[in-house]
Structure formats: structure tokens, C-alpha cells
Inverse folding.
């Protein structure tokens, strides 16, 4: 892997609302290298998006606030640089693709103009040149008739094409870091396959680091190098993709893997759901947020957050169950698959 | 006799433009769809958005009126049923909607939501209905005390359980499940899928399960119909469809679904279809899939192939394609010569 792009340490982002403090992200740490894809997986409300928005400094304040942690882009501290400098970082160094391409594009502005705007903002380019670059970018992300399309409005684009336009905008300034927040969730599977291909190609071309936020473990298995599993604002497990799928150590990761209906299972088996309901982020316990739904919980779980425990190369977990016991429990799980040699 | 028989079902939505709302075209949402659903079985309808799968579900229940075709439920012609007949029929045919946030009235208490159908059909006394609602809530895994609450007090998964309790209240025979788990998180999705399976076993329910998610459809269905632009392109028993897909669209759909297993995923070859699903207002001539089809030849542009049994995987596997994958002696073969039996019969 290449040079280190991002170092996130102990990031906590809270929202101070009338109902109470919503602890959306609590002590999340990870790093991103050039050419690497890290997948952040978790359910709605697990803090995946808020973590990424904190990085971009896009958390609305009030009510939100990054209350703790260091966010380093190379040697620049994203928490302390000025707003002006931050504007330079967005788009230039870190770009983001959002889930819903319809609401993130301006409906009354031509697609070409929206891309050109991003270019003129960050690069020393004239209007005309920027417009031509926009057309080239659209062609590069696989939009047919790009010269004509650049002159159209978002409503004239299909969902897949809008997402391609978003990607074109995101890569317009060759960012080092690309954050893709559920980029394919709103799309059909055949279109999803196209978009994943585009993201992959762009990454190869620019050698950027990609943060992929998704709830789809299939997409994670397909393109991630590393995976961070989040639950209730915490990272419960973090490691290389194979480790997470074949050597998972956290009960929540087991639960996620067991609850998926799979296309590749030959006989019909009953799914093993995670019991209970998602946690309320205002009344999170001080300890492990998964406690209430964990079938293996013990006394210490609710009140104390377990320390990071290394269980493999670059693979860490936060869990109170002793490691031998975890391995024993896992061996008895019906859905658990040992890796093919 | 099958519980539900659908013959040549059509639903064309008019496109109206201008001040006078003149009809300037039609959206061919469902265009000649036929299938049977046997009692106690789960029929999956799968495909991408714009394929017409939800419209089939709604038209079968007459929530929208069909443009043409026949729907027979237990031998009764649903399309010709009068208003009062329809009321009786609806006791046997219920629906669960996709969005558990939009499908429950936020101003009604759960007991009124779940008990509404009982009240409309004049079933039981007030006290009996209350008891029934409490039982239903327990059946779907909620607490009977929840009856006094409002929808906003529940999470997405719990709301979907409420929607299911409402559908169950009249002891229906058929339930149309329109993307019932699409809005739910994976861990909750598994809970609801298991619940649906349990209820089917317990009450002998028949499901028409509409979803864009192939893994979910495979998991829950006995039979699966793949829809593309208002037509069924392939229909078969679930196990066969997933191991021996004959239609190129089915193949592409299956290969596009990422599998949550990195080793498998790295070893797979993906068929990436080019382009987008065309607009159902202006479907391509000939086979609706031909502009995106990697196997398309000239014959494909002439006429939509009809569903035919090839017998490679038994009599229950039908496919509408001139160049289907064949599994004659266990090996997959795609011929260059068109399969002309799939040509539509000339109109008499």
C-alpha cells in the first residue's frame, strides 16, 4: 500500500438536541492509505455517515459537534485549519459521493455547469475550459453522448447516470480521498454493478484512497481491502476484508453475516436474525452498545467499553468475551464459514 | 385449480399532457403477464424498477384497475367482481406495503390500525375485536400492550410487523407482499423474513412476494418470475432458476448481485449490462431486452418471444428468449441458431 492519507483517532461526534445528547460517533479510529479501499459497514444509525461528514467538517453546528479526536489529512489537522483552508480541502483533497443522486444535484442547473463550477472553484481554469473538462469527465465515467448530455438538466438523466455525474464531479479535481456514502443503495443491481466498476476504475487511475460506506456486505466483500464494522457509534471490529468475513471476532459481525439471505446457498436454511431493536443513541450504555442484543453478554458489558484487542494482523476487536471463548462460540455457529484454503 | 390464476394481465397508464390533459401516450407498466400461484406456495416477482412487479401485485387486488386480462382467485373472476363481491374477496386477499412509515396512519392507534378491517367487515363485538388485535400483535412478535400506542413510537421493523398484523386480521388466504423488507436493516430484515415463513406454516398462507432483491426472493420463494419492462422473461421453480438461468437477463441479474464472501466474489465473473432500463412509455420493439442483451441478433428486434417450456429443467421452467442457455446434458450451451418455437403465434 502507498502513502498514508488519513489518520483518524478517537473521533467522537455528538448532537446536542432538546431530547438529549445523541452520541452518533464515539471514539472511532482508522487510517486510509493511497490505493486502499476501506468499507464502513453498519445499520442505519450506527454512525457511518456522521463519521464521514465529520471528516469533511460538514456536521451542522449547532446541534452537532466533533467533541473529541484528531483528524489528520497528511500533516494537516482537519479540526483546526481555517474554514478557507477547509474549503480548499473539500473537493481538492477529499471528495464525497452521496447516496441519493437526485437530491444532491441541483435540479435547476445544467449538469455540465455543476461540474464546471466545482472545477473553477478549485482550479485555475476559465469557464469555457471547465465546461470542456466537464464533458470529458462525463465521457470518462461512461456517459454516452457526453457532449450532448453536459448541456442537460439532472431530470433528463436516469438514476445511474446521475450517480455517474456525481462521480464525475467528485473526481474533477483528482482528490486523494474519495468518500462514497451508500453510492449504489438507490440503484438497481445491474446499474449498481456499473457504478462499482466506475468507482474501481477511477481509483485505479488516480490511485486514491476510497472510504465506502454501505450496509451491503456483498458490496463490501467485492471491493474493500479493509472493513470497519460499526454499531451504535462505536467501531466494534476492524480488519482486512478476509479477516472480517472468515475470522470475525465480534458477536455483532457474526450476527450480520448470519442474518443475510445468500444467493450462493444451495439449500434453504433458516436465517438467524439479530434479536431486538436498534439502539437509541441518546440512551446508549457507557459500555458496549450491542449489549442489549448480544446473546453472549455478560456483567461487565453494559458499563465498561472493552479496550481494543488485536486478534490478527491489523485486525482488532472490542469485546469482553475472552478470545478462547469467542473462538469456541464461533465454531458452534451454523452459518460460520471457515475460509477456503 | 390454482389459488390464483393470472392470464395476459395488462396495465397501461395513460400519459396526459397539456391543459386539456389529452392522452399522448401510455406507460406499459404490465404488458401481458400470466402465471399461477398454488395454495400454500410463495411466488416471487423479481426485477428492476420499472419492471412492473408492484403493479402486478396491485392490479391482482384491484387496487388499480387492469387494462386487460383475467385474474381468477379460487375460480372467481376478480376483474368482473362487483363492489360488494370485491369486499368479500378482499377478506381473502390482503397486502403488506413496502414503506412502514407511509403505510400506517400516524394519527391512529395501533389497535385501530390493526382492527380497522375487522370493524369494516363487522366482525365480532368491540371486546372480541380488542382480544383479536391483542392476539394478532402477539402473533407477529409484538406486545399486546402496544395496541394503545401510535406508529411513531415504533422502529421500522416493528412497524412492518404491525402492517403484517393488519394484513392477517381477516384470516386471508393470499397476501401480496410488496417489497416488505426493502426498507429494513439487515438484522431486522431476517427477523421479518422468519416471521413471514412462520406465519405461512401456521396459517397455510399463500404469498405473492414482490422484491428487487434476488437473495431475498431466492430465500423465501418456491417459484420465481423474472420481470423486465412489463413482461415475464423467465419463470421457474426457485432452485432451478438460480442454478440454471436460461434468459440472459436473469443471468445478468444473478451475476450482478454481490455475494458476501470475498473468496467467492473474487472468483466470479460478472456480466455487466450496458445502459439503463428503457422507459416503459416507449418500450423497444421486438424483445424488450434486446437493446441491452449481449446475445441479441436480428430476430430479437422483430417480435417479443413468448414464454416456452424447453424441458431442460422440467415442465415448470419457462423462458421467453430466442437464444436461451440450454442445459441439455448438464453443460451450459448457447446456440447461434435462434430457437424459433419462441416466435409468437400469428394473431388469428
Amino acid at each position: 500500500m502507498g502513502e498514508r492519507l488519513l489518520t483518524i483517532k478517537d473521533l467522537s461526534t455528538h448532537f446536542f438536541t432538546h431530547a438529549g445528547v445523541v452520541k452518533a460517533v464515539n471514539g472511532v479510529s482508522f487510517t486510509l492509505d493511497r490505493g486502499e479501499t476501506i468499507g464502513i459497514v453498519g445499520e442505519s444509525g450506527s454512525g457511518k455517515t456522521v463519521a464521514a461528514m465529520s471528516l469533511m467538517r460538514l456536521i451542522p453546528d449547532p446541534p452537532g459537534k466533533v467533541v473529541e479526536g484528531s483528524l489528520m489529512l497528511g500533516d494537516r489537522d482537519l479540526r483546526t485549519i481555517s474554514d478557507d483552508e477547509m474549503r480548499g480541502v473539500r473537493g481538492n483533497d477529499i471528495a464525497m459521493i452521496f447516496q441519493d443522486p437526485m437530491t444532491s444535484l441541483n435540479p435547476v442547473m445544467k449538469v455540465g455547469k455543476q461540474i464546471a463550477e466545482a472545477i473553477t472553484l478549485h482550479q485555475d481554469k476559465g469557464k469555457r475550459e471547465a465546461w470542456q473538462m466537464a464533458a470529458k469527465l462525463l465521457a470518462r465515467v461512461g456517459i454516452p453522448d457526453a457532449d450532448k448530455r453536459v448541456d442537460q438538466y439532472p431530470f433528463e438523466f436516469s438514476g445511474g447516470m446521475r450517480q455517474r455525474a456525481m462521480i464525475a464531479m467528485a473526481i474533477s479535481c483528482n482528490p486523494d480521498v474519495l468518500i462514497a456514502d451508500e453510492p449504489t443503495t438507490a440503484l438497481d443491481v445491474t446499474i449498481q454493478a456499473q457504478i462499482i466498476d466506475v468507482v474501481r476504475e477511477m481509483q485505479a487511475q488516480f490511485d486514491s484512497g476510497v472510504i465506502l460506506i454501505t450496509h451491503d456486505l456483498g458490496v463490501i466483500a467485492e471491493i474493500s481491502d479493509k472493513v470497519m464494522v460499526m454499531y451504535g457509534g462505536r467501531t466494534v471490529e476492524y480488519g482486512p476484508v478476509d479477516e472480517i468475513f472468515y475470522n470475525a471476532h465480534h458477536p455483532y459481525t457474526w450476527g450480520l453475516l448470519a442474518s443475510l439471505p445468500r444467493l450462493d446457498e444451495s439449500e434453504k436454511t433458516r436465517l438467524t436474525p439479530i434479536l431486538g431493536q436498534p439502539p437509541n443513541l441518546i440512551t446508549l450504555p457507557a459500555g458496549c452498545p450491542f449489549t442489549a442484543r448480544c446473546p453472549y453478554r455478560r456483567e461487565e458489558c453494559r458499563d465498561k467499553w472493552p479496550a481494543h484487542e488485536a486478534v490478527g494482523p491489523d485486525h482488532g476487536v472490542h469485546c469482553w468475551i475472552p478470545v478462547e471463548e469467542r473462538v469456541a462460540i464461533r465454531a458452534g455457529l451454523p452459518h460460520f464459514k471457515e475460509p477456503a484454503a | 385449480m390454482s389459488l390464483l390464476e393470472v392470464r395476459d394481465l395488462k396495465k397501461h397508464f395513460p400519459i396526459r399532457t397539456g391543459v386539456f390533459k389529452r392522452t399522448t401516450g401510455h406507460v406499459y407498466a404490465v404488458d401481458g403477464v400470466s402465471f399461477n400461484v398454488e395454495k400454500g406456495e410463495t411466488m416471487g416477482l423479481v426485477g428492476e424498477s420499472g419492471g412492473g412487479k408492484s403493479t402486478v401485485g396491485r392490479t391482482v387486488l384491484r387496487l388499480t384497475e387492469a387494462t386487460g386480462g383475467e385474474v381468477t382467485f379460487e375460480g372467481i373472476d376478480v376483474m368482473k367482481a362487483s363492489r360488494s363481491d370485491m369486499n368479500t374477496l378482499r377478506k381473502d386477499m390482503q397486502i403488506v406495503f413496502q414503506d412502514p412509515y407511509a403505510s400506517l396512519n400516524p394519527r391512529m392507534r395501533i389497535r385501530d390500525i390493526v382492527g380497522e378491517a375487522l370493524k369494516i367487515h363487522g366482525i365480532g363485538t368491540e371486546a372480541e375485536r380488542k382480544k383479536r388485535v391483542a392476539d394478532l400483535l402477539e402473533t407477529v412478535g409484538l406486545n399486546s400492550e402496544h395496541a394503545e400506542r401510535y406508529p411513531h413510537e415504533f422502529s421500522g421493523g416493528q412497524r412492518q410487523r404491525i402492517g403484517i398484523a393488519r394484513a392477517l386480521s381477516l384470516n386471508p388466504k393470499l397476501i401480496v407482499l410488496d417489497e416488505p423488507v426493502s426498507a429494513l436493516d439487515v438484522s431486522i430484515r431476517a427477523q421479518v423474513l422468519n416471521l413471514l415463513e412462520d406465519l405461512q406454516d401456521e396459517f397455510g398462507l399463500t404469498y405473492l412476494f414482490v422484491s428487487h432483491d434476488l437473495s431475498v426472493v431466492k430465500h423465501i420463494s418456491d417459484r420465481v418470475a423474472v420481470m423486465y419492462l412489463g413482461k415475464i422473461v423467465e419463470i421457474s421453480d426457485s432452485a432451478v432458476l438460480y442454478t440454471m438461468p436460461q434468459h440472459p437477463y436473469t443471468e445478468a441479474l444473478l451475476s450482478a448481485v454481490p455475494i458476501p464472501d470475498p473468496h467467492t466474489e473474487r472468483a466470479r465473473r460478472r456480466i455487466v449490462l450496458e445502459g439503463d432500463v428503457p422507459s416503459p412509455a416507449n418500450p423497444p420493439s421486438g424483445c424488450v431486452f434486446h437493446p441491452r442483451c449481449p446475445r441479441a441478433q436480428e430476430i430479437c428486434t422483430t417480435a417479443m418471444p413468448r414464454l416456452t417450456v424447453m424441458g431442460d429443467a422440467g415442465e415448470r421452467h419457462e423462458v421467453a428468449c430466442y437464444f436461451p442457455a440450454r442445459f441439455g446434458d448438464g453443460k451450459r450451451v448457447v446456440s447461434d441458431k435462434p430457437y424459433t418455437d419462441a416466435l409468437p403465434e400469428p394473431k388469428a
User: Anything to note?
Assistant: Chain B touches chain A at residues 48-49, 155, 157-158, 185-191, 193-194, 197, 212, 214-216, 218-220, 242, 252-265, 270, 272-277 (CB under 8 Å). Chain B has ten helices and 14 strands.
